[in-house]
Every structure is written in C-alpha cells, then in structure tokens.
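Input.
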Amino acid sequence: MDLKKFESSATVCCHKDKPYVVGRNSTHNVAVYERTEQAKHRDGTPDIYNEFQLTLVKNIDGDIWALEKDLRRVIKATHQLDKVQSSVCELTGKITFLGFYRYCIRDFLVSHGF
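Output.
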C-alpha cells in the first residue's frame, strides 16, 4: 500500500520575543470573539434595559498577564481610552475585555504572527 504524503496547511508559530502563544480555533482563525450579556439586578432577575459588550480571547498559552498588558496597551492607543477593564482566567487561558475590540485585537495578533 503506497501512502501519499500531503503537506499540512497548519502553521507552527514559535515567538522567541513573546512569552505567550495564542492558538487558533478549528477553522484556523484567531480565537477572538464578541459577546453580549444581559445585566442582572441584585436579586438575580434580568435587567432588560442594560447589556454588557464583551470581547473574549481564547487559546492562550504562556504568560497570559504579558498578553493582557500588551492588548490593554494596544486598545488604549487605538481607541484613545484612559481605562480598559479586563478579566484574566489563568486556568482556562482566557482574557475578557469589557467592550467590543475584536478587530483591534485580531489585527494585533495577526501582525505579530499568531
């Protein structure tokens, strides 16, 4: 049986200058997502008039805090903001930003080879 060898379209990224790696999802896109969540009252009932706009960055390996610092700096510079609220989950390798910054983050990650 003669098996043909095919070249893989997957790219391996190794960044010697960055202490973190951001992987891609199953469709080979950068794992940056936007989500809208409904706010809740203190008693737990949904507040139908208020929503949160969130941006999620997934598939992070390495120094997640360094990535959060770099992304925060890029978002501040791009959108002329004084403060950027974020949440880091080291266990799952996710960073959540309050606001819609998908294109800004995606452009930064792609320009750095992720």
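The domain at 20-111 is CATH 3.30.780.10 (Translation Initiation Factor Eif1).
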